[in-house]
Design brief:
The chain has 322 residues and is of the alpha+beta class. The protein has a single domain, classed as (Glycosyl)asparaginase (Glutamine Phosphoribosylpyrophosphate, subunit 1, domain 1, 4-Layer Sandwich). The chain is 38% helix and 24% strand. Strands 4-3-2-6-5-1-11-12 form an eight-stranded mixed beta sheet. The protein has a four-stranded antiparallel beta sheet with strand order 7-8-9-10. Strand 3, helix 4 and strand 4 form a beta-alpha-beta unit. Helix 8 crosses helix 9. The chain is globular. 54% of the residues are buried. About 4% of the residues have low confidence. Bound molecules: aspartic acid (ASP).
């Protein structure tokens, strides 16, 4: 009888643990305010965020890995024209697209990243292939593309990433001769962080970078420790915002380090690091999950496209006051 009770308790605790997965996503932070978004855009963005959450949740609910979940969630947003990643990426000054992406497994701290790639349909899957190959962490430009061909990933021509709205934003930037951060013509970077039922975390980020970027500019999104970090000892983070500031602050690693060494909660660490970014002059936001099950956002912009999912359900939001 005693043994039966113990087996029952064990089964129940395993079931509770299996249900304890978490997923948080973002689709970029910026001057996202109600009067700047049409009702149709609002609907489309929320629907896309929900599809991304559904793709990641399906994997996690079946006991799949955080790594698979973040890749799947990001792929949905890369394929959606409303976000600055994959199809819908912003334009470079020359009128093309150069995409950056990274992924990290908190279990082993294995990581993969690609910068300035132009023909792989889903850069997040290329970042994962780099990680899984295991030789290098970060590949750039032509070499990354050769690697992508060798791995048999789906290729597209660079104009597959074109969308009329992003072209309009490039034209506006050129006409107004403004700097990258004077106007908000870039939001829509995407990212996901997850905790799986085995207690492991993972993070993924993908972007087209900044509208009108030049000279092979690379932002924080493919930089492990800035735009993306995952460590089972602390948390998983994906960032979005003015990349140069996120690189200088080492945002994603800094949040994890504060949690590890100062014992801060995810919220306290994320808010503190975002305050540092702000003090340097940078705007943007982060999403965080922890092995303990904390799920948090922190952003210093009027809005951030975002969503959360767990066994309890899914929710999405856009504006700061939601
Ligand atoms: N962080 C990205 C970059 O600087 C842009 C963004 O998140 O909006 O490339």
């Amino acid at each position: 009888m005693r043994n039966l009770l113990m087996i029952g308790a064990l089964l129940m605790s395993t079931a509770a643990q299996a249900a304890d997965w978490k997923l948080v996503i973002h689709g970029g932070a910026g001057t996202i305010e109600r009067d700047r978004i049409t009702p149709e855009q609002d609907r489309n963005i929320r629907a896309a965020l929900d599809r991304s959450l559904a793709a990641g949740s399906d994997i996690l609910a079946k006991g799949g890995s955080a790594l698979d979940a973040v890749e799947a969630a990001v792929r949905v947003l890369e394929d959606d024209p409303n976000f600055n990643a994959g199809h819908g990426a912003v334009y470079t000054y020359e009128g093309g697209h150069e995409l950056d992406s990274s992924i990290m497994d908190g279990r082993t701290r294995a990581a993969g990243a690609v910068a300035a790639v132009t023909t792989v349909k889903n850069p997040i899957s290329l970042a994962r292939a780099v990680m899984e190959d295991g030789t290098h962490v970060m590949l750039g430009g032509k070499g990354a593309e050769e690697f992508s061909h060798e791995k048999g990933l789906e290729q597209v021509s660079n104009d597959y990433f074109n969308t009329p709205e992003r072209k309009r934003q490039l034209d506006e930037l050129k006409a107004r001769k403004v700097g990258y951060y004077d106007v908000d013509l870039k939001y829509g970077t995407v990212g996901a962080v997850a905790l799986d039922s085995a207690g492991h975390v993972a993070a993924a980020t993908s972007t087209g970078g900044l509208t009108g970027k030049r000279w092979g500019r690379i932002g924080d999104s493919p930089i492990i420790g800035s735009g993306t970090y995952a460590d089972d000892r602390a948390c998983a983070v994906s960032a979005t915002g003015a990349g140069e500031y996120f690189i200088r602050e080492g945002v994603a690693h800094e949040i994890c380090a504060r949690m590890r060494f100062k014992g801060e909660s995810a919220k306290v660490a994320a808010d503190a690091v975002m305050a540092e970014v702000k003090s340097l002059g940078g705007t943007g936001g982060v999403i965080v999950v922890t092995p303990k099950g904390e799920m948090d956002y922190s952003f210093n912009t009027p809005g951030m496209y975002r969503g959360k999912a767990s066994a309890a359900g899914r929710s999405v939001a856009i504006f700061g006051d939601e």
